[in-house]
Amino acid sequence: MQKLASRLISHSVRSAPFRLLGAAALILITALTCAAADLGLVDAATLKGNAGKWTVLDARPKAEWEAGHIPGAIPFYWESYTRTDAKGVKYSSFPPQELAQALSGLGIDEKTPLVIYGDADKSWGSEGYDAWLFSWLGHKGPIRLLNGGIQAWNGSSFPLVKGSERQQARKVHYQADPKPQYLVSTEEVQRKNGLQLVDVRSTFEWFKGRIPGSVHIPWEDFHTGKDRHPLPPAELKKLLVKHGVDPNKPVAYYCLGGVRSAYAWTVHQLSGLPEARNYKGSWAAWEKRAQ
């Protein structure tokens, strides 16, 4: 019996490095699978100086795009890629493969460098929604927000184009690789599991009804006032702490349909804080939940 025990201990010691190596490999594979999206900011001068190197997406309503847009920008407003789903939930984003097909038709593949801009006063944070959408799809190319949006471009007196432009889309195939860690489901919200919920709707919406246990921070608080820049990391952390949210613990944002909350999510991701999640269905899905 002692000899058997000795052999077992010896085998355990010899195999330990291999078990550690296997565990390390598993961690590495997991890290690669869950690699964060390449999100960042770009200023107006840099964008203008690198015209043609990025695919530019205009996240404002189509009428705003037609009235004047950055040269070469493709209209990409959230309403064009959402609908009421089979459960009656409004503002549901298209399924990943349907989005991938639409993006392929625009000449965008999963490695295309993107710059997204909006208008903080008119587009409900749609530029943040687009950034979240591409992150969720598993976009592998860089995703940049124009810092300050269309206001920054106009403030630099850079040119705009009115109406449609003749653009030849490349023939490409967008390969979606959805990242579930960037969203949260109604079932997960119901279970909570330590998840801190932040409601970014207006004060009026908040008082009409909210998810139990959520705190209220209007989405406009996630950008600076005059220049419409996303909050710097230190300011975001201060904002969250002020409202009783621990920035080092899991956070999920919600609004009416996941658009404004996606802007808050994007600002959170840009800050370098632990990753947040967007409640894609938001209040529209919460109202349809099984009681």
UniProtKB/TrEMBL annotation:
InterPro entries xrefs: Rhodanese-like_dom (IPR001763), Rhodanese-like_dom_sf (IPR036873), Thiosulfate_sulfurtransferase (IPR051126)
Keywords: Repeat
SMART domains cross-referenced by the UniProt entry: RHOD
Domain of life assignment: Bacteria
KW Repeat (keyword) present: yes
Record flagged with keyword Mitochondrion: no
Limits of the Rhodanese domain: 50-162, 191-288
Protein name stated in the entry: Rhodanese domain-containing protein
